[in-house]
Amino acid sequence: MNEVTSFGDRLSQTFARFGQLCVGIDPHSWLLADWNLPDTADGAESFGRTVVAAAAGQAGIVKPQVAFYERFGSAGFIALERVLADARAAGLLVIGDAKRGDLGTSVEAYAEAWLTPGSPLEVDALTVSGYMGVGSLDSAIAIARRAGKGLFLLGATSNPEGAALQRATVGEGAYAGATVARAILDDIAERNAQSDSGALGSLGVVLGATVDLAGFGIDVHAAPTSALTPVLAPGFGHQGAQLAAVNTIFGGYAPGVILSESRSILSAGPDRITKAIQHKVEEAGSARG
Ligand SMILES: O=c1ccn([C@@H]2O[C@H](COP(=O)(O)O)[C@@H](O)[C@H]2O)c(=O)[nH]1
């Protein structure tokens, strides 16, 4: 049987080739209107496939926001399947932003849906919630590792409402005394150290570029140097964070940060989207140095 390449190694290869920008695919109603597309599943499909075609060969990663397809029910999922198929055929690394979370066999079923090779919704990595306990995701983690896929656990999210919960202190267990966000980061780092031998681990966390990580008890200068935990970082662009600040915000984690922007790129419209992506890829490259 062929050895499966880990998600961490595939992410490292993508970074080396295309840099660290991730283009979000978020077909908001207003964006569909700006793009002269109907606010329907067909409109969202056309939007997503145009973004994929513009990103292919320029950026390495795309992140479709599942909610904007789910709102159209089964037709939306068919549209999303086609966008995902295009993206994977174009060699883009695809992160499904679905923020799934559950326990036992239920989370296992989510992982089968999104991470099984050949599944209609197959992506390379999925955003998940560990707020039922990181251990509640064990079966999904096992499926991801077997298939060479990745998971990004919500840690310190970019929205201001997240802080009250995510900065709360864990009361018991191995991470007692740490904030919730820090406990998730530490748990994932340990799992990566045990299972990944490359530069980047296959399990990542979501850390918003808009948040003050020190306030969450996260010391960005204490990042591990091998099996570094990848960080999916929304918050650049429309939410206010500047790509130029990536090294300052993320310190030792910066080599593993996925710089995600959606609206700030997508608002360029269908005629200027290719140029907008090219410009952002260059900006992200200069920011990382
Ligand atoms: O902490 C988080 C986690 C996920 N998101 C998602 O990222 C994009 C951000 O879109 P922008 O237009 O670049 O603001 C969107 O799909 C969010 O649901 C996040 O913003 N923050």
TrEMBL record:
CDD domains documented for this protein: OMP_decarboxylase_like
EC number annotated for this UniProt entry: 4.1.1.23
InterPro entries: Aldolase_TIM (IPR013785), OMPdecase_type-2 (IPR011995), OMPdeCOase_dom (IPR001754), RibuloseP-bd_barrel (IPR011060)
Tree of life domain: Bacteria
Pathway connected to this protein: Pyrimidine metabolism; UMP biosynthesis via de novo pathway; UMP from orotate: step 2/2
PANTHER family named among the record's database cross-references: OROTIDINE 5'-PHOSPHATE DECARBOXYLASE
Family (UniProt): Belongs to the OMP decarboxylase family. Type 2 subfamily.
Protein name, as recorded: Orotidine-5'-phosphate decarboxylase
Origin species: Leifsonia kafniensis
Lineage: Bacteria, Bacillati, Actinomycetota, Actinomycetes, Micrococcales
